[in-house]
Amino acid sequence: MTEDNLYASSTQCKTWSFGPSTLSTIRQNTNAAGIRSIKRGWKRARLEASSSNTPAATTPIPSTASTPTLAAATTPSIDPAAIPDPEPLTPEEELTLVHYYILRLVDLSDIYNFPSNVKSTACIFLSRFHLHHSVQSYHPKHLIHTVLFLATKTENHYIPLSDFCKRVPKLTPEAVLKHEFTVAGGVRWDFDIKHPLRAADGAIMELLTALGGVANGNGASDPGLQALSQRLTPNPVRRVQDTHGRMKAFLTKEALVSDVYYHYTPPQVFLGALWLADKDVAESYIEWRFGENSTMGRVAKKRKKDKRGKDRDKNGDKEEDATPETAKGPPLAPKLLSVVKSCAEMMTSARAYAEIPREELMRIDKKLHRCQNPQKFLGAGMALGAGLSDAMARKPSEDGVAAGKAEERKRKLDDDPFGGSLPGRD
Amino acid sequence: MPSLTSSAATSAAIARARENAINRGSVDADEICPVCKSSRYLNPNMRFLVNPECYHKMCESCVDRIFSQGPSQCPVVGCDKILRKQKFRKQTFEDIQVEREVDVRKRIAKTFNKRQEDFPSLKEFNDYLEEVETVTFNLINGFDLAATEAKISAFEQSNKATILQNAAKAAQEAQFIQAQREFEREQHRRARELEQEAEAEEKRDKLEHRANLLKALQADDAEFEVAKVNKLARKKSSMRKENQERRAKELEAARNAPAFQFMSNLNKPISEEPPKPYDPLDGFDETNKYFVYREKYENPWLQDALNDRAMLAGGYLVQQYCERAVFEAFSGVGCFIEDPPLSDNLSVSFDTPMTDAVAG
Predict the structure, then answer these.
(1) Which residues form a coiled coil (chain B) (predicted)?
(2) pTM score > 0.80 for this model?
(3) Rg, chain A, Cα only
(4) Which of A3, A33, A290 is nearest residue B332 as measured by Cβ atoms?
(5) Which B residues 330-359 touch A at CB under 8 Å?
(6) Most exposed residue of A131, A210, A269, A280, measured as fewest CB within 10 angstroms of its CB?
């Protein structure tokens, strides 16, 4: 099995890779589903409000007595039908919000000093989850802790939940675990995410080793390598090491906030980051490994084998026969180079998400708040106060019991496996 | 007394009829039991049985009467064979000699059931057959009876296992032939059904055509209508013919196809090609397309791990990490997500049951 086949058989390639148009279609569908769930929530709240308006006048004394000031302060005459449905979020606004929370997740992970693979996994989990679950149904602010905690477990960097909660004020274990199952199902139980981080390490490792060989006068037989070290003079090793550090910074921030994980494979992503970090290194590396007269490292191996035992040599000869130079096909470099460039552009454009003005975010969040909390903006909430409306959302008043229960059951069965929006969650 | 005399007369008549019947030869011998002399005339359900010990014929009631109490001597005068009721059976052949020969041959065939493939060549097989025939002849004609029997039992003793084996084989073959016969019968039945169906359909179409014609004649534009109806009928009949041909062809194909999968393998010669050496990895190739592992990699950031006892004790190998990292550096570099077939596949395979409502 070649390297490409192995990647092609992973879930990341099979279920989580899309062309740009497919991705935007999926986002639009998700947005539409979110809008529908908002509409349902408002419809339900309207029904409750209109049905509870009349009994509200004759509610037993304890409930009104508990919130006498609120009931007195509000005007009970507002007709719930007169309040218009809230304006829903657009797919772009949803994406902005998700990316904002991915940046928050990066910061959150830095509080714990988690390694970069945990951080990256958490961000990709959140991004993937919101690819199929609208922000309007699940607010990312409730999910970032859950996602980070889940990532510590999938990346084999577990810390106890109590320790996890200690670092963030007002964070409770219940809040972390509440959505864990939902999130795990939402990423389709595909916990293994192939990050470009280790791939980048591998490539740099190989490049450094090869450059070390050149310095010792071993790389004479590889023209690509010669050209590479020529281009990176005076001190190629130093330059590659510096580039490595900058590349990692791109991989742990820009790569996570953009859509590159959906559109490119890990080697392409890290090459994109390498391009951003140092264009010369990236270009000469691609030319060396995938160019016209690339040796794919075979020459180096042959020389090494000569030093080893005889049996190894035999195997090596067979290998050489199996992959003659002529059967390699056209070089990958030109195509790869254009892909890497577009990947790099995508990552650069992701920087815009870090600079979105606070007002814009506030505006979106306010919209979302109105969408998600119909009770607060409808008559029921006005008449009885927020506390009672929450109670009513969970336990409908006596005469609405049958209808409310039936509708609840129907909603759970029909709509979606995780039960649409969660009313009264905040 | 008239009644007495009449009964005496009847009994006399019966006795006379009996005498006549016996004297009249073989045809009438079937009618009267040689032991109890009762005739088929009085007992229409009478069956004659023989015992392969001595082949003396007698009626069923005699067998019941004489042998119900256990083995007994044959009632025929001069025969001193002891017979058992169990062994009595219906006579198959008219000639008792033939009956006996068949029995002997059956018995011999049971013991001497060697096949041609048991012998190196046809000549040896023929020699064997001749010897068997000699034994059979001796038994049938009573030559050297004791010596022949001794020979047979000796052979039986020494070849018990192969005899059993061959018997099992023969049973299997018989079963197979039976199955094949049934298959053929089923095929015939289906062909017949098909034919009948076609005939019925033709008849129906004819009737329908006639009714249509009459209707067309009543219409205003009779000629046009008639032409239309005729055309329709022609079209129908050609379609029917085509259909029939197709189905007949299908049936033919089914008949020619083997009834069982194993039939085509039954007498297949063993292929000469020697089996390939066993490959435990089933063609898995470890060679990589884009790179070759080196023995050692320069990785300044892993220098600590090389000497960290806590890590090494847990089985962590820097070399393995390097191999994995280098592999990942190239795993998927040649996959381009935007390629239309790939992305098409993805969009098709990607159902969205996880979204909280399916897109309308």
Answers:
(1) 167-254
(2) no
(3) 28
(4) A3
(5) 330-338, 342-343, 346-347, 349-350, 352-359
(6) A280
